[in-house]
Specification:
Strand content: 15-25%
Radius of gyration: 24 Å
Structural class: alpha/beta
Distance between the termini: 55 Å
Number of strands: 26
Oligomer: single chain
């Protein structure tokens, strides 16, 4: 429990109505979860406005309302705190409510279109191997040491993330690594957090359904680096031309990594095979289990972060050589009898799909065909749908367009958008099968000796979302069953 006045010390308050000497025993964004003594934050969201639920929160017991607009009628027993930005204010309040947990460990955030999950997972596993108790906040799962906590968003809301960090502090974690999505940065979910460092992996077209323009998407990513303090480090991939843009206004110490340029952290691929990567990193040879150029970037970012956090170079390289990729990231299954390789990957953007397919084509045998099963999510950026199909066709011998997570859209409408990107000369190599399970089964049945099947888009997910319901669905398990029986 905290006193309201203590929670407002870092906040610019425009107006307060009601008793300021109240005790806060809970923070909530959900009016249904409000209870006696709780503070309800009315946030203006992408789809709904929390101000609509103020009365509901009060009826459930909320005694303090954080808002941007005072209601016409006020309850005498309720305290109203008016601010310019409820979301940003909630970040500072959440931090203070949980005793500023991000200041009690070293928190590093990773942002970018692709590579976030792999990078934070590798960092978590690296520091665990180095002997530290470590926290993880990712798309796949959250972890406090070895304890798994289910993940619902790439970046939790400011209340949830501070609660999670507080639990990490209580458990004795020294470090925490978290994905920072563009949504989280734009929605101010990371305000109030003290970051020891931030990593930029890359940026390509994604989430334009939310950000509307690519420039706005870039600005959202950049805003993460804008809030870093002078005590933090900013590590950016400068092989992506937006790497320098990210750090234009940052107060943090800037470090750069690259496979192509002479930078603070430089890697060169000596060998790339299905057995892993042989790299030269800052003059040191390294053998790792991960595959593909995109993972060379991920490994380099992780190595650099380890060094920037004060770890021994030799120990970092040794531990890193033993690590595997995150679940659903270039996960592969081999059918020994038929000599068919199946790969499951989360690639759900044009850039990620292209990188995965480029890697597969580099590693395949001369006569091997690539069979790609791919779909696009509903209620998301429609502009990438034809582009995804075009890339799949250009880099595969056979393509099966299928359903992903249709959500509230009709799968047939999504597939029609994708079909618009199929080149005319590729039409004979494309099948459209809306049932995802049947699509994977078909890919396995048409595969011949030496072929490689890529099932792209869902990766680690264990569900398929249709009209608000999440049905059990696991690409890897289905692929494994169809290949091995």
């Amino acid at each position: 429990m905290k006193n309201l006045q203590d929670l407002l010390t870092q906040v610019s308050v425009l107006e307060i109505k009601g008793d300021q000497n109240r005790t806060v025993n809970k923070l909530t964004l959900d009016s249904r979860q409000a209870e006696q003594g709780s503070l309800f934050a009315a946030l203006r969201g992408y789809q709904t406005d929390g101000h609509q639920f103020i009365e509901k929160a009060i009826s459930n017991g909320a005694s303090i309302i954080l808002l941007e607009e005072m209601p016409a009628e006020l309850h005498l027993e309720v305290t109203y705190v008016k601010v310019a930005d409820s979301a940003a204010t909630l970040g500072w309040i959440s931090s203070d409510f949980y005793d500023r947990p991000s200041e009690k460990l070293k928190l590093v955030g990773v942002t970018g279109t692709n590579g976030k999950t792999t990078t934070v997972t590798l960092l978590y596993n690296l520091f665990q191997k180095l002997g530290y108790k470590t926290g993880l906040i990712s798309t796949v799962e959250n972890r406090i040491g070895e304890v798994v906590v289910s993940a619902t968003h790439t970046t939790p809301n400011s209340i949830a993330v501070n609660h999670l960090l507080a639990d990490m502090v209580e458990a004795g974690c020294d470090y925490a690594f978290m994905e920072v999505s563009s949504h989280a940065a734009h929605q101010r979910r990371i305000v109030g957090l003290e970051f020891a460092g931030a990593i930029f992996t890359n940026i390509s077209h994604d989430h334009l359904d939310y950000h509307k323009t690519f420039d706005e998407y870039i600005k959202a990513k950049k805003s993460f680096f804008d809030i870093l303090t002078k005590n933090a480090f900013a590590l950016v991939n400068v092989d992506d031309k937006r790497g320098e843009v990210m750090v234009q206004n940052t107060k943090a110490s800037v470090y750069r990594y690259s496979l192509q340029k002479l930078t603070d952290f430089k890697a060169k691929i000596l060998e790339n095979s299905l057995l892993g990567l042989h790299l030269e990193i800052n003059g040191q040879e390294f053998y790792g289990r991960l595959i593909g150029e995109f993972n060379a970037y991920n490994l380099l970012a992780v190595y650099a972060t380890g060094i920037l956090l004060g770890q021994d170079k030799a120990e970092v390289l040794t531990a890193l050589s033993q690590l595997k990729a995150a679940e659903g990231r270039f996960d592969y299954i081999f059918d020994q009898k038929r000599q068919v390789l199946g790969i499951v990957d989360y690639a759900h953007t044009p850039d990620a799909l292209e990188k995965v397919l480029d890697t597969i084509r580099q590693l395949r045998q001369v006569d091997a065909r690539v069979i790609t099963v791919v779909g696009c999510g509903g209620d998301r950026d429609k502009t990438k749908r034809p582009e995804m199909a075009k890339i799949a066709c250009n880099l595969s011998e056979q393509v099966i367009l299928t359903s992903d997570n249709p959500r509230t859209e009709q799968p047939e409408a999504i597939l029609a958008d994708m079909e618009a990107g199929v080149p005319k000369d590729a039409a004979g190599r494309v099948l459209t099968i809306s049932d995802r399970k049947q699509a994977i089964k078909t890919a396995c049945r048409i595969a011949q000796s030496g072929d490689i099947i890529l099932v792209a888009g869902k990766g680690h997910e264990k569900y398929q979302e249709i009209n608000g319901v999440k049905y059990p669905f696991d690409d890897k398990e289905i692929l494994k069953y169809e290949l091995r029986g």
